[in-house]
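User: My collaborator sent over this chain with a note saying "see what the structure looks like." That's all I know about it. Can you take a look?
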Amino acid sequence: LLARFPGRIPAGGLAGGVGSLMDLLPTFANLAGSPVPSSSTDGIDLWPLLSGEAQSISRDPLLFFDNWELQCVRWGPWKLHLARYNSFAWTQDPAGGRRNLLLPAPELYHVDEDPGENYDRAPQNQELIAWLKAQVERQMQTLPEQARSAWRETQQQRIQATPVGALPSKEP
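Assistant: Without extra context I'll predict from the sequence alone. Here is the result:
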């Protein structure tokens, strides 16, 4: 995000942190002096990062959805892939249709050091993976039924073993 607000955002500053479009409403509401009920938004106020008051900000892990399909979790520099479609968006649907499938094993990437997501760090970080998966389950309880239902369906699919980084495949 590039942000400019002369006199309020320091020029030439660089803030580290993970933000989302969901964070714009609470951030702009704060700047306008307007309250945002916590039950109406999933975002957080990023103003402490933008203004230079803080170098990081505490937040729950961010869940990445494609429509209602949960695929990844982002927390700080870590990105955990839990599920993936069985085909690319630009290809023809495979027999049986395009499905969101669990990966045979979650894949964990440190995106600050590996932005191309080439080196799976899951084997060395099982405790972090367990914690992130627990956060997914906790947050999933607060989401709309469509998201919860899609996640249950994803988890119920039987999959074949595939290599790290590959598209998952349903068992025949």
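A starting point for your reply to your collaborator: The helical segments are 24-32, 47-50, 126-140, 145-156.
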